[in-house]
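Good morning,

Attaching, inline, the backbone tokens for the sequence recovery test we're adding to the shared suite. The designed sequence is right after.
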């Protein structure tokens, strides 16, 4: 299963060095295969991707240096498996110390620690393993002494190589915990300690929340976690800081000179069977359900009856659990109820669910046949819903109902939060069936075993795209039981998740194109619906411009700079010469009389060149044109970004209209600002006229309904005072994007 050196050498751009798969990595992979059944070829891919990540890091056997990288995956897609593999590879390739900063909450940190410890057998009893695990060490403790001793042994050339251990330090993302680790390293010659620092959920709490304020006010404030992370980095002369996240918006939008701004990016591919937003929120997929606003705001104090959609969701979950019981799957199947970050609403939902479960347990065991029949009838509509997504694998209704009593007696209802019993870890082996009610602890990074039904009446709140996506605990490796999965959300939240799918795909596509290249040189460009913000405002250090690529995109003053006009004439001439390689341009109204109206006698027709390659338009025209105004350059750059995104989605051709057959048209300029009075000629006759009576449909009517259109033309401009010709043959362009293809972008201003 070893990835060969030749394969690593084939990676382009080349890696800084070529990590090898050694004994620890091979042992880990074999153990993971046996324990989980993950196919070996899938694990091979995980190793190969981890080798690429490590190969972008500072070479542990080379001279001291520092790098910062970003690794992006999908929510619940296997990021922990990736950095566990990375840790094993670090052992095999000469790293002495791996620091894992594992989340901001104890439950998340403990979950990660347990996984890492188990997967790598860091603390296997009765066996001497080549690892030293220290958990949240502090100065003047035995753990600190052990850590220092092993690191000093690492730097001692007389100490036997086979007795040297790789130290793994796991700490909570908390200022005091990080500072404690730094204190434990005093007295160690760290320049000789190749170090890998892994920041899990790196977009959360590690970044400077005062960044935007500092820029605006000229101050230099730092948030506590950020300050301690920087201080920790500074003590390691030979290290790479690797940020792991599924929501990289914040990491990509901090100031490029920030010490945490990533220099490289790599991606973690989801394995077979992964289910994400593209599946759960596809149109007419049947998996996403809407919670009415009136029910989302329901409170026990005002309504003793539970929301109808909650009852529906509970029935859906119980039938899915019954299906698991029929099939004797013996696996966890869970429902998650996430009403709020506040604990008050948790009690309301716990009350409703407990009452429903108690009442239903009594009904299924009653001798009242009619009562039982009426109760089972309430499940029939839900059953029909499940039939629509189960691909014929759903057991019969009678088979499921026969198991309902067992499931109701087995299911465990638990609060999950930071208060009292809600803070205790979940013993997943205690029952197959769980209903979890909670808030923040069910957010970011927390794995809910076998989650099939999610009921989340939380509002959209801030509208931060990354925060929204981190709620998606309902993603994961669910293909085997996808037909039973349902997500209940408020209407606007559901729409936001649907829109996020395109945003996420765009980020991954862009970063994939940047793999191995200097990330700080990449101009940040995101597709993002205008209803959302990319991340919290406080951390953003890059100036952004929102731009809607829809309708007409054109310069306002392409005539302002005389030198630009001369250059653009040459660009136009070369491009129009290229058009001769395609089918000859024809008068548009002759090609499509049903679309275009031009019955003019004394005016030159608008020539149509159909299906010109989009890449040619961008490369040989738009990129070469120069604008005299910054605002016009922004328009042009935004048009290019939009066209390239559309090309990647399959829009590969553009319809080119040469307005007036390239004959220069006269236009006057305004006295106030020297811009053109009216760029496009309107319809003739003007006003509300029946289409059959039109002589000319107007310039703006010459567009393709299903794809991008490009207008090219020349103007002769008249002096605003004298009306005498002042500039002739001024090249002008306009791009039209149909509404169905529109994109909303966030663009990095200073890169345009």
């Amino acid at each position: 299963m070893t990835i060969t050196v030749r394969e690593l050498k084939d990676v382009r751009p080349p890696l800084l060095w070529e990590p090898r798969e050694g004994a620890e990595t091979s042992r880990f992979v074999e153990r993971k295969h046996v324990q989980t059944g993950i196919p070996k070829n899938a694990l091979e891919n995980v190793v190969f991707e981890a080798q690429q990540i490590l190969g972008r890091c500072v070479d542990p056997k080379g001279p001291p240096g520092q790098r910062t990288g970003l690794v992006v995956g999908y929510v619940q897609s296997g990021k922990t498996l990736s950095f566990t593999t990375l840790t094993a590879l670090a052992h095999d390739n000469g790293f002495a110390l791996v620091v894992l900063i594992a989340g901001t909450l104890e439950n998340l940190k403990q979950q990660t620690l347990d996984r890492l410890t188990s997967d790598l057998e860091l603390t296997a009893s009765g066996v001497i393993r080549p690892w030293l695990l220290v958990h949240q060490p502090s100065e003047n403790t035995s753990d600190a002494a052990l850590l220092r001793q092993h690191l000093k042994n690492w730097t001692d050339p007389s100490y036997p190589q086979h007795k040297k251990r790789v130290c793994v330090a796991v700490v909570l993302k908390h200022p005091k915990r990080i500072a404690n680790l730094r204190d434990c390293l005093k007295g160690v010659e760290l320049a000789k300690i190749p170090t890998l620092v892994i920041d899990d959920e790196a977009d959360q709490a590690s970044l400077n929340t005062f960044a935007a304020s500092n820029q605006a006010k000229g101050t230099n404030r730092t948030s506590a976690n950020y300050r301690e992370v920087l201080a920790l980095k500074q003590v390691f002369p030979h290290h790479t800081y690797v940020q792991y996240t599924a929501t990289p918006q914040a990491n990509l939008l901090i100031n490029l000179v920030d010490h945490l701004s990533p220099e490289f990016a790599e991606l973690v591919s989801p394995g077979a069977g992964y289910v994400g937003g593209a599946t759960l929120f596809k149109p007419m997929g049947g998996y996403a359900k809407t919670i009415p606003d009136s029910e989302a705001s329901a409170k026990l104090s005002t309504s003793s009856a539970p929301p109808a959609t909650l009852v529906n969701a509970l029935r859906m979950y119980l039938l899915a659990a019954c299906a698991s019981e029929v099939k004797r799957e013996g696996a966890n199947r869970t429902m998650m109820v996430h009403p709020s970050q506040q604990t008050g609403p948790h009690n309301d939902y716990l009350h409703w669910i407990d009452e429903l479960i108690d009442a239903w347990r009594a009904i299924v065991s009653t001798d009242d046949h009619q009562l039982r029949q009426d109760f089972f009838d309430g499940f029939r509509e839900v059953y029909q819903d499940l039939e629509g997504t189960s691909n014929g694998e759903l057991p019969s209704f009678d088979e499921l109902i026969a198991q309902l009593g067992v499931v109701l007696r087995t299911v465990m209802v638990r609060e999950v939060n930071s208060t009292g019993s809600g803070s205790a870890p979940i013993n997943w082996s205690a029952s197959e069936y769980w209903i979890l009610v909670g808030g923040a602890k069910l957010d970011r990074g927390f794995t809910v075993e076998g989650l099939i039904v999610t009921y989340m009446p939380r509002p959209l709140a801030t509208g931060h795209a990354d925060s929204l996506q981190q709620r998606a605990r309902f993603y994961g490796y669910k293909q085997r039981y996808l037909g039973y999965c349902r997500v209940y959300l408020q209407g606007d939240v559901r729409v936001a998740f649907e829109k996020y799918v395109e945003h996420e795909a765009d980020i991954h596509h862009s970063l994939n194109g940047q793999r191995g290249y200097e990330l700080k040189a990449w101009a940040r460009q995101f597709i993002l619906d205008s209803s959302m913000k990319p991340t919290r405002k406080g951390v953003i250090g890059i100036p952004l411009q929102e731009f809607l690529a829809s309708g007409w995109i054109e310069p306002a003053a392409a005539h302002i700079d005389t030198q630009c006009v001369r250059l653009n004439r040459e660009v136009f001439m070369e491009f129009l010469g290229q058009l001769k390689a395609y089918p000859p341009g024809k008068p548009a109204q002759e090609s499509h009389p049903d679309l275009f109206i031009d019955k003019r006698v004394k005016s030159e027709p608008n020539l149509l060149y159909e299906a010109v390659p989009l890449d040619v338009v961008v490369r040989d025209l738009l990129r070469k044109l120069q604008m005299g105004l910054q605002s016009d350059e922004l328009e042009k750059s935004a048009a290019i970004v939009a066209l390239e995104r559309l090309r990647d989605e399959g829009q590969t051709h553009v319809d080119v209209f040469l307005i007036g057959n390239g004959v220069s048209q006269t236009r006057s300029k305004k006295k106030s600002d020297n811009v053109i009075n009216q760029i496009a000629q309107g319809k003739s006759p003007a006003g509300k006229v029946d289409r059959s009576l039109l002589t000319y449909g107007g310039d703006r009517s010459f567009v393709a309904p299903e794809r991008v259109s490009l207008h090219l033309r020349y103007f002769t401009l008249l002096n605003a005072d004298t009306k005498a010709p002042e500039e002739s043959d001024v090249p002008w362009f306009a791009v039209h994007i149909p509404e169905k293809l529109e994109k909303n972008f966030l663009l990095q201003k200073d890169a345009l």
